[in-house]
Amino acid sequence: MVGAVAVLALTTACGQESAPPASSQNVGATASAGGYATSGTGLGDGAGYDAGAAGQAGGAGQGASAGELSVSTNQELGKVLTDSGGLTLYRFDKDTAEPPKSACEGDCAKKWPPVPADDATAGTGIDKALLGSVVRTDGTRQLTVDGWPAYRYAQDAAAGDVNGQGVGETWYALAPDGKKAQGGAGAEATGGLPGLSTRKDAKLGEIVIDGNGMTVYRFMKDSPWPMKTACVGQCVKKWPVVAPVAADDTKGIDLKGSGPRGQGYVVFDRPDGRKQQTIDCVPIYTFAGDKKPGDTNGQGVGGTWYAIRPDGKPVGAQQK
């Protein structure tokens, strides 16, 4: 439940009272995505692939309808398309977009399940005119994005996983415009930014931005002492978590923190298994409603979301 508050596993620097037992849950695992341990992604288009095992592992998440598509921000790849369950969508270099045609059949389609087109709709930040369909050889309709057939990957167990990226040098996550999500675009557009840095906003002052130049936020329902998160489930689709960023890949960020141990720049494990960066022990996020570097559309949303300063304090909000 989105509003439920879940205690996180974290370091004692952020006020941990007792560490929860170790979990074997895959990083980023969610119930809707089907939980199972992923293996390496160096396989080709199906060689050495156990179709039966993958079909069982993928569960309902891989065979489910697409629903409302979303745009998710990945630390390395930038913006990628996901289905309503948060699973990454991919394209195949051996397919064609003009005309749309899939070259992934048989065992390939078990490893890379085609995304059904029947109920796929365009969510925020997606041009619905780019969505279409192609009839596969078995008569089913597969979703296309700017002509490219869309797939999931059987070894993506969880929302946010991108284990299919670059597999066989032919499979790539889909960007919202149908192109390949290969990373680097955000850094090139913003002049080669560190993983986390700051910028001067005309209205908000100095705020934190990620490596793609996107504004970073904090949620006032979260707690740093002891650390808790209130953004789970559907919430993280609208407010993607910021993945861990090495301290030496930051510029202008307060790495010390204000806690009793003076260690505020730490990484913790969320209750869904994903790892999230914090500033002064405050979990940080981006906003799916921000479409380009410089956007601050998440500022003040619901009276609970605010851009974050380099010391972890919220911009324009009173702290208790």
From TrEMBL:
Region feature Disordered, mapped onto this chain: 293-320
A GO BP entry: alkane catabolic process
Protein's UniProt keywords contain Lipoprotein: yes
UniProt keyword Metal-binding present: no
Entry keywords, A to Z: Lipoprotein
InterPro entries to which the protein is assigned, alphabetical: Lipoprotein_repeat, SCO0930-like
NCBIfam families membership: SCO0930_lipo (NF040526)
Protein's name in the database: Lipoprotein
